[in-house]
Each structure stands twice: as structure tokens, then as C-alpha cells.
Amino acid sequence: MVPFKYQQKVMFQHCDPAGIVFYPRYFEMLNSCVESWFDKALNYSFATMHLKEKVGVPTVSLHSDFVAPSFLEDELEFALSVSEIGTKSIKLNIAVSSDEQLRFKAQVTLVFVDLSQIPPKSIAWHSELKASIDPYLEIDVAMND
After folding, report:
1. N or C end of the chain: which has fewer CB within 10 A?
2. Contact at 8 Å (CB) between 15 and 22?
3. Residue 122 CB-half CA count within 13 A
4. Beta strands 55-56; 113-114: pairing state
5. ∠ CA 108-56-32 to the nearest 5 degrees?
6. How far is CA 73 from CA 19, 34, 89, 97, in A?
7. Alpha helices in 11-112 (DSSP H)
8. What are the residues whose beta carbons fall under 8 Å from the beta carbon of 131, sequence distance 6 or more?
9. Domain assignment of residue 142, yes or no
10. What is the DSSP letter of 137?
11. Does residue 64 fall inside a structural domain?
12. Model's pTM, two decimal places?
């Protein structure tokens, strides 16, 4: 298994007055990484999901650890892998590093939902999508959902 890699340069917009990444900005960058993974690795863009097929992948759980600070103009590398995949959800591990130093890590649980229903209802992964996710699976374990 090779993780999906996503690059993000720390911009002024990401920083507090001291030039250190303001912690909520990491969550925006995480979402950008996930969106890029769906688009580039799984060939299933958020535009296709949300606008054409009326489905989505909201975050239902997020655990994070801030390991070391990141600074303005640092080049961050996000490494995304799937630790668990269930019938309707996936758990992602995302490690963020710069110059081979771990800066931030997160475990994110996403649920596949039908957005045409109010409230949205969880649904099973399409077989083609699940097959696209499988190469990013760290271990062959299914979640109970």
C-alpha cells in the first residue's frame, strides 16, 4: 500500500501573527487533501458527488494530534491512507510532515450519504468506488457500521 500524497505550502492565510499555522487551518487543509484524494486518486470529484449524484462524505469523527509547529512557507506533505473500510464508512489516517518531521496527524471517519434525503441518510459505497479505495487500505479489516 502506497499512501496518497498531497502537497500544501503554508500560506500567510494559514498563520497566526507569529507565523505559525493556526490550528483550525489544518482542518481546512485536511479537507483539501481528502477532496484531492477523491478527485485525483479515486476519480470521483466532489462536484460529481454533490452536484450530479447528490451524495457526499461528511466527517463524523475527527481525532488529531499537533506534534510540532508548522511555519509560513513550510512545504507540507500530507500522506493519506485508509485504516478501515466498512459498508458505509471509511476511517482515514493522515500524517502531515515537513522536511521529514511529523507536524500533525489525524484520524478522520467519513460516511457515504445520500444528500437528496433530509436529513442525509448513510448508504453503501458503490462497488466501483469501493474498488478504487481498496489500494489505499493499510490492512484488510472491515468496520462495523
Report:
1. N
2. yes
3. 12
4. antiparallel
5. 55
6. 9, 22, 34, 13
7. 23-36, 46-47
8. none
9. no
10. B
11. yes
12. 0.91
Question: Domain limits at 105?
Answer: 4-136
Which residues share a beta bridge with 109? 61, 91
Q: What tens digit of pLDDT does each residue of 98-111 get?
A: 999 999 999 999 99
Residue 105 belongs to domain with CATH number: 3.10.129.10
Residue partners of 140: CB distance under 8 A and separation at least 6: none
Q: Coil, strand, or helix at residue 33?
A: helix
Residues of the chain scoring pLDDT < 70: 140-145
φ, ψ dihedrals at 45, nearest 5°:
-70, 160
Asked whether residue 145 is domain-assigned, the answer is: no
Grid coordinates given for 21 = 499555522
By residue count, the chain amounts to 145
Could you tell me if residue 36 is inside a domain? yes
Q: Are 89 and 111 in contact (CB under 8 A)?
A: yes
What pLDDT is attached to residue 140? 52
Domain count within the chain: 1
